[in-house]
Every structure is written in structure tokens, then in C-alpha cells.
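Ex. 9. Protein: DUF1003 domain-containing protein.
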Amino acid sequence: MADEGGRLSRPKEPRRTLLPRPRWDPEAFGKASEHIARFLGTGRFIAWMTVFVAVWLGWNVLAPPHLRFDRFPFIFLTLMLSLQASYAAPLILLAQYRQADRDRVAVEQDRKQNERSIADTEYLTREIAALRMGLGEVATRDWIRSEFEELVRELGQRQAFPLESEEHDR
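Predicted C-alpha cells for DUF1003 domain-containing protein:
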């Protein structure tokens, strides 16, 4: 498709509004949401929420009628709990997404480390094999010792029987 007058090649102009757009650091917002989500998942939160609901219900059932602010069926309490849940769910999801991103990065780093470890192990295995092959051609201490012992015996025989060894050499 042809670009009509270059309208697709230029970014869209930002909207002008009377109110300034709120600006916040996404990282700070994410950290705050993780802290809140961690608190929402604790027994302390459940205990405080239970105390709050019990006090609310107790006040609105046992207080004098003119001091009650949320009569049975406690619609305002239901509204408050729904509002709390409507904020808690996205915060928990955001915290889970951030944790999943961290897990993904950690898995990728572990995979790269494992690849490096495997490469290092393969290199060391090749080096050990090369050393073993090279040692097959190197004179060992035991071999040199046995050769010296054989030479000493041969020299001892030549000294004991000098004539035989001279004839044998010819």
C-alpha cells in the first residue's frame, strides 16, 4: 500500500490535555506492587483483615442505632472489600510477571553458564586424553629404573667374565 501523504511514516502527535500526564518510574511502581503483593500473601494481612471486618461488623451490629454507618446487609463493607480486591488482583499479577521475567533471566544465565561449563569440561577432557597419549611415549621412572638395573647386571656380567663379553661383542 502506498503511504498517503506520509501519514504513516511520521509518529503520531501526542494529545494535548489540560491536565498534566502523571509520570512515574515503572521500576519503582513494580517494586512497590511486589511489596504490596508480598504483604497480601501473608498471615499478618489475613489477621488484620479479619480484625477489620470483625470490628466493622461488631460496630454496625452492636453500636447504638444512631452511630451505625453500614446497616445489614453491610453494602458499604462489600463495596470496600470489592475495591480492595480490584486493586489487589492487578498488583499480584504485576508482581508475578516481574518474578517470571527475573526467572527467565536467571534460567538464561544458568543455561549460558552450563554451556560454558560443558565447553570447559570437553576442553579439559581433550587435554587429559592428549596428556595420556603423550605419556605413553615418555620414559617413566619405573622403566628407567628397570633399564638401569639391566645395565648394571650386564656390566656386572662383563666384569665377572671379561673374555666372554669381548668375544660376544665381535
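Check your answer against this statement. Residues 7 and 169 are 106 Å apart (CA to CA).
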